Amino acid sequence: MKTTESSQLVNIPAGPVNLEGMLELPADASGIVLFAHGSGSSRLSPRNNYVARVLRDAGLGTLLIDLLTRQEDMDYATRFDIPLLTRRLLDTTRWLRHEERTESLAIGYFGASTGAAAALQAAAAEGGKIAAVVSRGGRPDLAGEDALGRVAAPTLLIVGGFDDVVIGLNQAAYRLLKCEKELVIVPGATHLFEEPGTLEQVAKHAANWFSQRLSDKAA
Fold first, then answer.
1. Are 141 and 172 a contacting pair, CB within 8 Å?
2. pLDDT at res. 26
3. Cα separation of 160 and 54, whole Å?
4. What percent of the chain has pLDDT over 90?
5. Cβ distance 190 to 35 under 8 Å?
6. I need a labelling partner for 19 at 20 to 30 A (CA). Which of 12, 39, 74, 210 fits?
7. pLDDT-based confidence at 143, cuts 50/70/90?
8. Residue 185 is inside which H or E element, if any?
């Protein structure tokens, strides 16, 4: 298990607001994963925090951040404002590149629900600068056909086997991706991966995907 070198609550400027997040870096981190939470979730999500711990144990830094302020998150429509979420994610990406502790680290995106769409739109905008993307129970279809076709980052889509509608949406998005890609369906899992052992599978898939590709990008 990796020891944590630093853990800090950070405030990141994004247009007219400051976004609050938790930055945690293991010693000798081989990259950093920026989490884009889904609608109605936050950086305190127990599911994303569990995945983040597994990633840190694999030697990766994590930044869990709220892309919306508390007031914005109360507006249901704003939760689905993918362009806004994408802009905030890109602002945070720029912050990572100018932060002394993270400026040299390869960056990956982990997106859940609507956060997956924002992660893919941001990856499309960043070209080859993003090392990898992972979507958990995400809505990659909301990124749009144009953005999906421009994603260069290796992309892993993870969906629960009982999440029938979302499986179809992920399969449609998968066909539009032209990058290195993989679609994993976790048997017996519903949308939130609450069934015993299913979230552990998500974290294992994500850690393997990020570890290899962020290390390759750094090299």
1. yes
2. 95
3. 19
4. 80
5. no
6. 210
7. very high
8. strand 181-186
Q: Provide φ and ψ at 190, rounded to 5°.
A: -95, -170
Query: Residue 55 pLDDT > 60, yes or no?
Result: yes
Token pair listed for 99: 């932060």
Q: Is 54 exposed, middle or buried (0-12, 13-18, 19+ CB in 10 A)?
A: middle
Q: What CA–CA distance (Å, rounded) separates 71 from 78?
A: 10
3-state helix, strand, coil in the chain (%, to 5): 45, 25, 30
- pLDDT tens, position by position, 169-200: 999 999 999 999 999 999 999 999 999 999 99
CATH number assigned to the domain covering 4-218: 3.40.50.1820
CB atoms within 10 A of CB 216: 14
